[in-house]
Design brief:
234 residues; alpha/beta
Amino acid sequence: MADLLFIVLAESALEPVPREILDHPSIVKDARKRCKRPEQLILDRSYHHQAMAGLRDAHRRGRPDIIHITLLTALSSPLNLTGNLKIYIHTRNDEVIFISPKVRVPRNSERFKGLMEQLYEFGQVPPEGEPLMKIRGMGVEELLRNIDPTLKVEISMRGESRGIKDVVGLIASHDRPAVLVGGFPRGHFSKETISLLDKTFRIYSSGLDSWTVTSWLIFAYIDVTGADEVVQNR
């Protein structure tokens, strides 16, 4: 029975403003407002919608809120508080954010974006001392090699339809299971990512937000594994 759950928020819509739109008026305006250079900003559709119109795969980009809400959900969960959860953020540009379970994610979305901007600028947060977050160039394949999971599962609308408890029961029967959840607003994983996985499951009849899938997985895992007893007796 597994005692540690790995979750990878993969191909996430998190990135600095791309070079090709740095001069767009909406980017320049936002940079001036925040007293930053355009290249220091995190791409955010809420502010940069017009600038993103010409970007490739624009519908899958500029959503730092997905990462923010998912991290708030996961890191405040009982499973993380007891040391039984490890979550990673893989970005669409093949970077991986390694996250300490001790990190306290800002509740405010603008402060979270500021934290991500600091992370991209310095490579870790805080910039000096023991990092609570660090970012490294790394694809999903290399990350999974580092994690070395005994089972690699994707949650997707294209997967086999199974109840959440059945899926989590299978996951929990392995020593080091890893679950990949999409960190983008809609669509599917790339063929390269799909080729790395053992199983693909659909746990609901329609699409769910990344943070909903993550939360549901975590609390179903607690229920199925009996980790709730550990939580209550902590």
